[in-house]
User: Fold this.
Amino acid sequence: MSHYDDWGGPNTYPHFHAGWAMAGNTPFKYFKQQVHNGGIADALVISWPKGIKSKGEVRNQYHHITDVGATILDVTGTPFYDELDGHKQMSLDGVSMRYSFDKNDAPTNHPEQYYELFGNRALYKDGWKAVTIHANRMPWNVNVTAPFETDIWELYHIDRDFSESHNVADQYPEKLEELKARWDELAWHNNVYPLFDDMLMRIAKQQDRLFGDRKVFTYYSPGAVRIAEKASPPVKGRSHTIETTLNLTGKEEGVIVACGGFTGGYTLFIKNNKLYYDYNYYHGLYYRLESPQLPKGNVDIKFNFIETGGKTKGLPGGKGELYINGSKVDEVLMPDMHVSTFSLSETFDVGIDAGTPVSNKYRITNHYPYTGELDKVVVTLTE
Ligand SMILES: [Ca+2]
Assistant:
């Protein structure tokens, strides 16, 4: 309760305790990341006054998120193309939910669905569901790896036990094995294998999928704002530079480039005619580089990060350096650094720090926009 007055304000984050998450998911078990119904069951509201005669009714047929797209294609009469502009398309997984709009008791047309989430697995089929929590890992244990063979599967007869209250794995061992075997088939079919359970590393790899072996990232101002962190240059754990050239009169201030917010991130900014690079490690530990008073005219500025490995083996860390017109003006060791995510809601911005501020040196200002002329910022992976 010591933070009661902060709750809901700009210095808090929309996340609540696991106990409340579990309570909020009643009558289902568990919460996000799990594939028990507490993690995957969601309400869906569909409104289409001209197309649905039923009003204010509830449907209980089993469906999956893949069915939303298929339904929109169906009701708008939009064909699904197997090929588009010469590119063969992946097949459509979902099915239309239109049949249920005016038929409360029609059987579902989506009778089976596999799930895999950070190693947690489930198969729904014809009113039954097999489900396992991998290594009994809870969502707050983010980098656990464990063998999959020893996972304990549960079995629920969803048609009679929608809240997954009665595990009947012992009574129906053959049913459980049938569903597990079907999960395996669908997993191969949907590129789930190889299973990989290190959540932290799995999320960290998202950026590799986006960018491949690309090394140079150029962002122009204005315009390069509110870019999702995961779509920003993949600098975590990698040697890199951030460079720009500014025309300075001595009066400029504000953020040149920032990524993240008060829970973590990096920011390059000018304040009181000095250049700063701040790295925020989990809202409390800041690594800070600071230049002397900046010269006037065209000034080349560069942040250089050299990845050497962190304090903890296998985790990132290294040395940061600040350069003005090619001369090193400051350096700092950065032994504890983020592996994969600064924040779930913050962004990469050029010329401003949108959302919450990365640095506590400009906390009271309004996103601290850069007041001078800013052409572009270039991020280069240098390893
Ligand atoms: Ca921010």
